[in-house]
């Protein structure tokens, strides 16, 4: 049970108990103590970025998802999306397996490059009058191929039960023009996602986070150019560390726009000693991070063991044991 669920279901009942036992005068103080004691054994929901077990998912999807639930994960973030499928399973089958294991699919990574609309052919001018032939006023504009593609993809995300839709890809070495195109593109995706009561997030990689000679990164430009109401962020602790970013300062700067954290380390999460995950999670809770997803991409033992030990390490952090 997460903190929000605890307060929703327990606030009034605990206050009633406190008042009936010790009277109204001391109820507030005793209630605060009761909450602190109750929360000491409550852990936040922790999700797994499912591509961490990619090979296992292809070999035995049902067994792998059951193993994830038995480890103690409560959320999944799926990847390897193609229209109608994710993790090489149909949308319906993946939802069926996750529901059967008691896991909620909180998000999906969908990495669809921007597609420039095909330019309409210009109609020739009247050679005698040199006046261009005007389009009929009621003629429909050419459909945006990006919007059409995303409408179908978001149908799939809704069918999975997602709260978040995340994109973690931009072209390598983008020009200023391409960055501007992606600002417009992300705003479009964000608007379509919000219409379906989901949140769109951009997950910057090392390349997008590294600052150039002008002290601005691609991420900085995306953050400044995108509508905060449409585009939030998922910050990856490994990618940000590799880029030389002070993650605590980034959380301060971006505040609630950082909706998700990818808790990602150099190998098993929490064992490299290179990333202060406890401080990052604690800071994220204060600044508005809504969920955390663990990611493992470097394995020193069988992947399943790495994923399980990563969860145990994170669950034992003071920031997670509220």
What does this structure look like?
With 322 residues, the chain is α/β, with parallel strands linked by helices. The chain has 13 helices and eleven strands. It has helices at residues 3-22, 27-39, 54-59, 61-71, 91-100, 145-160, 176-195, 206-209, 218-225, 237-242, 247-254, 277-287, 303-315; strands spanning 46-49, 75-78, 81-82, 85-86, 89-90, 104-109, 164-167, 199-202, 231-236, 258-264, 291-295. Helix 6 links the parallel strand 6 and strand 7 (164-167). The longest helix has 20 residues, at 3-22. The chain is globular and about 55 Å long.
Brief account:
By secondary structure, the protein is α/β, with parallel strands linked by helices. It is 45% helix and 14% strand.
What global shape is seen? Answer: globular
Strand residue content: 5-15%
Q: What ranges have pLDDT less than 50 throughout 5 or more consecutive residues?
A: 1-28, 35-43, 127-133
- Report the count of strand segments: 11
- Biggest β-sheet strands, sense, barrel: 8 strands, parallel, barrel
Backbone structural class = alpha/beta
The radius of gyration computed from the alpha-carbon positions, rounded to a whole number of angstroms, is 24 Å
Order of strands across the widest beta sheet? 1-2-6-7-8-9-10-11
Portion of residues within helices: 40-55%
- Individual helix count: 13
